[in-house]
Amino acid sequence: VQLQASGGGLVQPGGSLRLSCEASGSIISITSMGWYRQVPGKQRELVASIASDGTANYADSMKGRFTISRDGAKNTVYLQMNSLKPEDTAVYYCNLDWCYNKYSTPICQKDYWGKGTLVTVSS
Questions:
Q1: Mean pLDDT of 93-101
Q2: Taking CA 109 as the corner, what is the angle to CA 99 and CA 45, rounded to the nearest 5 degrees?
Q3: Would you give the DSSP letter of residue 40?
């Protein structure tokens, strides 16, 4: 399985960015996809996740500013980030919980990580 993230970059405070992450490869179903972020010297933290039924979960500090959504047909998750603050500067990582077939038997795994995409909020 592969995760291809895009959409990071430099934005001014108060601006917006939209991250995308597409999962591809041996996938029969996706349980959950999400976004985490990490700054140097700190632990990776949850930004938001979305389950296969569309149920979204947000970190408290992102509620009201960030919106996670998914396109099941494209195995893609999006993160719309509005009202960005300098403290949102981080490397954002896509995360996947998914199932695949192995010898006709479904196998489900958690926490597959994509390469991060850097978001810099600065004037």
A1: 95
A2: 120
A3: T
Please give the Cα distance from 18 to 67 (Å, whole number): 9
Which residues, 6 or more positions from 53, have their beta carbon under 8 angstroms from its beta carbon?
A: none
75: tokens are 């195995």
pLDDT, the chain, mean: 95
What is the structure's pLDDT at 42? 96
pLDDT at 119: 98
Burial class from Cβ neighbours inside 10 Å (0-12, 13-18, 19+) for residue 115 reads exposed
Nearest by Cα to 30 from 53, 7, 55: 53
> Is 64 strand, coil or helix?
coil
- Cβ pair 82, 16 in contact under 8 A: yes
Residue indicated by tokens 């196998």: 107
End-to-end distance of the chain based on CA atoms, in angstroms? 37
Q: Which residue has the tokens 């960005």?
A: 84
